[in-house]
Design brief:
With 894 residues, the chain is mainly α. It contains 48 helices and 7 strands.
């Protein structure tokens, strides 16, 4: 006979309970499953383990779906099931056991031999329990006893008696407890012996797939990805999902309702208020309402909000009762998100006007405990902007407005700051926000106001003194940023010197906790030095940041510094090195998932300029478009000059000399940059040369000093085109650019010398110089210098051995100019795709870099490089470096 059939049987021993009242048959009835019930097979399979263990615990919050889950499971059980729903009115052990014996009788289990039902509501004879246990242990067919709402049983004596019967019943009884709280049974013993099956809140929670299926049972269709958002909001809470589905059925647009429903206005609120909040004491209700303003809380913080000292036992009890208070560990808790929303709405109705004060108390408590992010959030919610800005500045965290994963959230938070907030810290935050958007006039006005206010303050002592030092150091950082944006190197140097003096008064702990401040200061200093053309000094400041590792906090300054170092490499004629640094910059920020709009995007501009030198014009255009599409907020002179130069070079390469001249106009700044002026003049000179005006081209570069080798080579080329080969060679001999610059400059210098030799009839010297230029250019794939050289070079490139040096990279064709082979046309497939880092290593391998050089260039260890090399060899099915490069070229991986 099944449990379902047993419900309709008459009780085996009709009678009354110990109080003389008739037994309530509804307490023995297995709850009816609604038509919209969804069977979840994963939980049913888990419950099947109950048949292998004497004790099963289904423990979850109100509305978690515990009762219906067990009811559904009992429906398919072949063995007898005794169901008892407990009642708060049953205070004594006699009443509990009388009802349990009656439940056993309903499902066909006879009463204990020689034993009668308890007659005293508060007492049960131990002999009766012993006879019950003995009778159960002798059964051929075990009986399953389900005690629903067991959390209503609060008498420890009943728990001891139940454990006695369960222990001595042996395999004759399987006990299933459905409860919101932890029962008083010795669960640790059952766990240790593998004699207990447990299903708890986390497992009871609906998965997105189950939520979508549940909604479909209600006639609602929601994609799994949309259901996932609903599950995240409800934490998979069964009652919440069902109530949402029922409410959505009444909506004209169910899908939109499910995506945007407001918990405090639905049946969900009614359920939680009735089943959870109103069942609590007034003190507990007050605590729950007040902590609803917090994302997480501990007893001490809760006490700060209530003004009492009883939070610890209350929170412990709420968690034990599964009252939608979740333990996070280390004495921290949080509310179920829906419960928190409903409590927040209830707080505003029951205690209007209290919410800002609660946020204020929370902000100050958290400030004392050093939790800055939460302090700022609650300070802003309280509308206490002077306190909130002061916390940010005093913590030396102003750099977080410029870098890190949370800088957008922080900027949005302070965008709500009211204009009435008047303090040096508030002005510094305003200045930082404006300067971060390159809004110079407003930013400098706020910065000046803050500096004046700080200067007028009396010298504080103690903690206030360190707070003032943090504010002054923040001023120095913003001064350095202003110097960068205005192209003022002297201002940047003064700001750096001031920062060095102030650092001694700032607690070392703050400097260690905020490495981004130092990184940003050095970045701004390095950028202004670069703008001034002091490449060596700039490299020193930039390298200090680029070689460090402060996690996501310094990822953006590191990207900026690598980008600036890449620009220096490019300007000094090292395109390969510049490309590697630019790629490393973007790889670093990608590793920390920083927003694309972070930084100045100078790395993209350097890559575009390198692509032009390689005559990869479509790639250069794509990179420039990418740099333009991303809304980079940092618009400093270095970046704008880099953008202008890369754009002008691309336009010139495409033959649009007029547009190239317009793009190369000097960038306006407080201090004129010698290299920016020189590069602009170099592009303009090349444009005039392309238009057949060599004299004009030569004049443009006459004033450029010899300290810019690229411009010297450009001037020599213009002199040669103007019919002055002697003057061209004299320029090159005097400046000797070949000895202190990279191949992008030396190749062009060799081509000028080769052309001069060719025009002088010295074919041997011309070929030798051209061969040298090809050797130098081949490693870097520099094609543009040969395209710019003019028609004289073409006949020479067709001769042996120059044609061999040019074949395959400068002149289209196979590496040795031979006939195509089948293996060249159809290379064997790669065993496995190369990772991004393996491609980085392979590219450097192709540039003949040693293992140590690759490690230094990628900022990794030698052992890491060796590991990547082994993987590359395996995937390319080769054993040597040379073979790996050849194979990669065959597969067009290089």
């Amino acid at each position: 006979m099944t449990g379902w059939e047993a419900i309709d049987r008459e009780p085996a021993t009709p009678g009354t309970d110990p109080r003389g009242d008739p037994f309530l048959r509804t307490r023995f009835a297995v709850p009816t499953r609604p038509a919209t019930f969804l069977r979840r097979e994963r939980l049913v399979r888990h419950l099947d383990q109950a048949l292998q263990t004497p004790l099963t615990l289904v423990n979850g919050a109100a509305g978690a779906g515990k009762t219906l889950l067990v009811a559904d499971w009992t429906a398919k059980q072949p063995r007898p099931v005794a169901w008892l729903t407990n009642d708060m009115a049953d205070q004594g052990s006699g009443m509990f056991w009388a009802y349990l014996l009656q439940a056993l009788g309903v499902c066909g289990v006879p009463p204990p031999v020689g034993g009668a039902s308890p007659v005293d509501a508060n007492h049960v004879d131990h002999a009766l329990l012993a006879r019950l246990a003995a009778g159960l242990s002798a059964r051929d067919r075990p009986v399953t006893v389900v005690l629903d709402e067991y959390d209503r049983v609060s008498d420890p004596e009943i728990a001891e008696q139940l454990e006695f019967v369960l222990h001595h019943a042996g395999g004759g009884m399987h006990l299933v407890l459905v409860t919101r709280t932890e029962p008083l049974l010795p669960l640790h013993r059952y766990r240790a012996g593998g004699e207990m099956t447990e299903i708890r809140n986390a497992e009871l929670a609906f998965t997105p797939e189950e939520a979508a299926a549940l909604l479909e049972v209600h006639g609602l269709r929601l994609p799994v990805h949309a259901a996932r958002a609903l599950v995240e909001r409800t934490r998979g809470w069964a009652a919440g999902l069902r109530l949402c589905a029922l409410a959505a059925q009444q909506s004209p647009d169910p899908e939109t309702y499910l995506k945007d429903f407001e918990a405090d206005r639905t049946a969900v609120a009614d359920f939680l208020l009735a089943e959870v909040l109103k069942r609590q004491t007034p003190e507990t209700q007050d605590l729950l309402l007040r902590v609803s303003v917090l994302d997480r809380f501990c007893p001490e913080l809760a006490n700060a909000l209530t003004g009492r000292a009883d939070a610890e036992p209350i929170l412990t009890g709420l968690h034990r009762e599964n009252a939608f208070v979740e333990r996070l560990g280390h004495s921290w808790y949080r509310l179920h998100p829906l419960f928190g929303e409903i409590l927040g709405a209830h707080l505003r109705v029951r205690l209007p006007g209290l919410e800002p004060e609660l946020h204020r108390r929370a902000a100050r408590w958290l400030r004392r405990r050093g939790s800055l992010a939460e302090t700022l959030g609650h300070g802003a919610a309280a509308g206490d902007w002077e306190f909130t800005a002061g916390a940010l500045v005093d913590d030396l965290a102003i750099g977080r407005l410029f870098t890190g994963l949370g800088h957008d959230d922080l900027a949005e938070l302070f965008s709500r700051m009211e204009p009435e907030a008047a303090s040096p810290a508030a002005d510094l935050v305003r200045a930082a926000r404006e300067l971060s958007r390159s809004e110079l006039d407003r930013g400098l006005a706020h910065l000046q106001h803050a500096e004046q206010s700080l200067a007028a303050e009396r010298m504080p002592t103690g903690d206030a003194s360190s707070g003032r030092a943090a504010a002054l150091l923040t001023c120095a950082l913003l001064e350095a940023l202003a110097a960068r944006l205005t192209g003022s190197p002297q201002r940047a140097e003064e700001a750096a010197e001031e920062a060095g003096r102030i650092r001694e008064d700032v607690p070392a702990r703050l400097l260690d906790e905020h490495p981004e401040l130092t990184a940003l200061l050095l970045t701004h200093l390095g950028s202004t030095r670069l703008w001034a053309g002091r490449f060596g000094d700039a490299r020193a400041a930039l390298t200090e940041v680029a070689g460090g590792d402060g996690g996501d906090a310094t990822a953006l300054p590191r990207e900026e510094c690598l980008g600036h170092l890449a620009l220096i490499d490019y300007l000094q004629g090292w395109p390969g090195r510049a490309e590697r640094r630019a790629l490393a910059a973007m790889t670093g920020t990608g590793r920390f998932s920083l927003p694309q709009a972070s930084g100045s995007g100078i790395g993209l501009l350097v890559l575009a300029a390198v692509a032009v030198d390689r005559n990869e014009l479509d790639r250069a255009q794509a990179l420039l478009d990418a740099a333009a599409d991303v809304d980079h907020t940092m618009r400093d002179p270095v970046t704008e000059a880099g953008r202008a130069i890369a754009t002008a070079r691309l336009l010139l390469a495409r033959g649009d000399t007029k547009a190239s001249l317009e793009a190369a106009e000097p960038v306006v700044a407080n201090v004129v940059s010698p290299w920016a002026e020189g590069q602009a003049a170099l592009v303009a000179s090349a444009a005039h040369l392309a238009e057949g005006r060599p004299e004009t081209a030569a004049k443009l570069l006459q004033a450029v000093p010899d300290s810019q080798p690229a411009c010297v080579v450009g001037a020599a080329r213009a002199q040669l085109a103007a019919g002055e080969p002697g003057a061209a060679i004299e320029l090159l001999d005097r400046a000797h650019p070949e000895g202190r610059t990279g191949p992008a400059v030396t190749v062009r210098a060799s081509l000028v010398r080769a052309q001069a030799a060719d025009e002088a009839g010295d074919a041997v010297a011309s070929r030798r110089l051209l061969a040298h230029a090809l050797h130098e250019a081949r490693r870097e794939r520099l094609r543009r210098p040969f395209t710019e050289a003019g028609p004289w070079i073409r006949p020479l490139l067709g001769t042996v051995p120059l044609s061999g040096l040019a074949a395959g990279w400068l002149i289209p064709g196979l590496p040795h100019g031979g006939p195509p082979r089948p293996e060249d046309r159809l290379p064997a497939p790669v065993v496995e795709a190369l990772s991004a880092r393996e491609r980085d290593v392979l590219q450097r391998l192709a540039q003949m870099m040693s293992t140590e050089e690759i490690a230094a260039d990628l900022y990794v260890s030698v052992n890491t490089v060796k590991t990547h090399l082994k993987s590359v060899y395996r995937k390319l099915a080769v054993n040597r470096r040379h073979d790996a490069v050849r194979r990669a070229r065959e597969l067009r991986l290089l």
